[in-house]
Amino acid sequence: MKCFPILILITCFTLSLAAQKPDWCKKLPRPAYAKLERVPIANNWFEVYKIRPGVFAIYEPHQFEEVISYLIAGSNRALLVDTGMGIGNIKEVVEKLTTLPVSVLNSHTHNDHVGDNWRFNDIYGMDTAFTRANARGSKTDAQAELAPGEICGSLPKGFDSKAYSTKPFRITHWLNGGDKINLGGRTLEVIATPGHTPDAIALFDAQNRLLFTGDSFYLGPIYLYRPETDLDAYVSSMQKLAALAPHPELLLPSHNVPVADPAYLPRVVTAIQEVRQGEIKPIVTDGKHEYVFKDFSFLMR
Fold this sequence. Notes:
The strands form three sheets. An eight-stranded mixed beta sheet has the order 1-2-3-4-5-6-7-8, with helices on one face. The protein has a five-stranded mixed beta sheet with strand order 9-10-11-12-14, with no helix packed on it. A four-stranded mixed beta sheet has the order 13-17-16-15, with no helix packed on it. The chain is built from seven helices and 17 strands. It is 22% helix and 25% strand. α6 (231-242) packs antiparallel against α7. It has helices spanning 3-20, 23-26, 90-97, 129-134, 140-144, 231-242, 264-276, and strands at 37-39, 47-52, 55-59, 68-73, 78-81, 102-105, 123-126, 173-175, 180-182, 187-192, 201-205, 210-214, 220-224, 250-253, 283-285, 288-292, 296-300. By secondary structure, it is of the alpha/beta class.
């Protein structure tokens, strides 16, 4: 009889946690992940998936952004494309995946992609004022990622949410569009794709026909509402990606799901042009306009 009230308390507490679970979190895991090869790691904040030989997706499913960073290995060295939120220690994960020297290159410098840059000594960056400004770090943007409804499950043990910020980092190599990075047996071309941000890039592995699209394209709402967004530049960048030759066989975006069909690229070009021509009616929520298409949408001012 003495146990009965305790059981009621535990049940009520469990139901209370379930009620507080954000709606986006209830939809996880995303079905696409069941088809991917998961790599076991001793870290509860990240999940790792082997996409192709030498290419690993490092996924953060416990935060609303669902950021995906990529580790790309050559024969001589490796490149980490983005360092995620900086909530979990991505460097510890990377060191379990490769013994090669690792450099960092950001798809762009929004806070959710540069969170652990400070842990690395060798960092590539696009030669823009936007990059330089964001390399100074930010607490405001980081704290917004911990707002109610942003976290799914538990934060890492020992994480100090009050002190959480994007720490400053130092760019050691400045890049421009058209530059190439040789990892040994694998060469990556930097494609400038301004629009989402002034320093946005895609990364093209032409030999293996892999295109890392950053935040220019992913399955879900594509953010095009921030002050730094340039819609004219975004259209031009997407046209550039849709016209790539050789045509990529696989897209590797930076949010939600790490694999997508390249057939989406021309669809995105058509869709954004329809939006700008006033042919699509938006859904208006909290002052933002969402233009919805099959599998993706544009979230705009």
